[in-house]
């Protein structure tokens, strides 16, 4: 085995905690939903897309988002629900761009289906907007080369994996993740970084994603 390259900067693993906080805002129609989507803070859009994604990562890949679920289940607009569910939220590097995509999808649907504006959800089943409050916490783990990275990757929590893979795109506003960014910038292995970056998180649970990344890195060393 070739001598491992020492990183220019060690990789520090972080994790995060999320608290959900009610905003008091509620929608009963598609029009109301659209209007509020355009106005609410980015932390609300994040909550109803990425939080929902992480919650269902325990069960199966390719989950929808909260907007898609509500539109389908409570308003019966299955076509729009499918369009919203097909939005690949992790490919957006900013919440602003994701918000615009969701809003335009609903706007276009309303233009083509005017009667959809008249549908009301049941009083108890309105869409309640919730915001996500995040706390980023350092872990005790630091990797100085790829061997240490794999060892730590196999023991950190899935919350840490979620933070470095999913939230990294929004934090860095790049089409990459923390792991790939570190491997390219500090290890100098652009090919390996790209191979990890090309993994589609939608096709894995978080545990399977952990294993896939570990296998890819192990092959390289």
How would you describe what is shown here?
The protein is α+β, with helices and mostly antiparallel strands and 221 residues long. The chain folds into 2 domains: 92 residues, no CATH class; 107 residues, no CATH class. Helix content is 52%, strand content 15%. The protein is built from 10 helices and 2 strands, in the order βαααααβααααα. It has a two-stranded antiparallel ribbon. Helix 2 packs across helix 5. It is elongated and about 65 Å long. The termini are close together. About 2% of the residues have low confidence.
Keywords:
single chain; 221 residues; alpha+beta; two-stranded antiparallel sheet; 15% strand
Can you lay out the helices and strands and say which pair or pack?
Elements: E1 11-27, H1 30-39, H2 42-57, H3 66-73, H4 78-85, H5 95-112, E2 127-143, H6 146-153, H7 158-172, H8 178-187, H9 190-197, H10 206-220
Antiparallel strand pairs: 1-2
Helix pairs in contact: 1-5, 2-5, 3-4, 6-10, 8-9
Percent strand: 15-25%
Q: Give the integer mean of the pLDDT values.
A: 88
Please summarize the sheet with the most strands. Answer: 2 strands, antiparallel
Secondary structure class reads alpha+beta
Return the string of H and E elements. Answer: EHHHHHEHHHHH
Number of domains: 2
**What is the number of beta strands?**
2
Kindly report the spatial arrangement of strands forming the biggest sheet: 1-2
Distance between the termini: 7 Å
Number of helices: 10
Question: Uncertain regions: pLDDT < 50 for 5+ in a row?
Answer: 58-62
- C-alpha geometry: elongated
Helix percentage: 40-55%
Rounded Rg: 20 Å
């Amino acid at each position: 085995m070739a001598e491992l390259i020492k990183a220019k900067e060690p990789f520090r693993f972080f994790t995060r905690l999320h608290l959900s906080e009610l905003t008091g805002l509620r929608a009963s129609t598609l029009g109301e939903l659209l209007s509020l989507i355009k106005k609410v803070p980015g932390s609300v859009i994040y909550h109803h897309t990425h939080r929902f994604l992480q919650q269902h990562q325990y069960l199966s890949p390719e989950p929808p988002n909260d907007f898609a679920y509500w539109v389908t289940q409570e308003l019966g607009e299955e076509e729009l629900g499918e369009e919203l569910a097909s939005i690949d939220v992790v490919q957006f590097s900013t919440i602003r761009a994701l918000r615009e995509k969701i809003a335009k999808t609903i706007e276009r649907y309303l233009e083509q289906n005017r009667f959809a504006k008249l549908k009301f959800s049941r009083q108890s089943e309105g869409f309640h907007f919730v915001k996500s409050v995040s706390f980023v916490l350092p872990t005790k783990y630091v990797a100085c080369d790829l061997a240490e990275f794999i060892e730590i990757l196999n023991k950190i929590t899935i919350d840490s994996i979620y933070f470095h893979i999913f939230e990294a795109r929004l934090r860095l506003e790049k089409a990459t993740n923390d792991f790939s960014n570190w491997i390219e910038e500090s290890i100098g292995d652009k090919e390996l970084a790209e191979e990890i970056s090309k993994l589609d998180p939608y096709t894995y649970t978080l545990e399977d994603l952990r294993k896939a990344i570990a296998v890819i890195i192990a092959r390289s060393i």
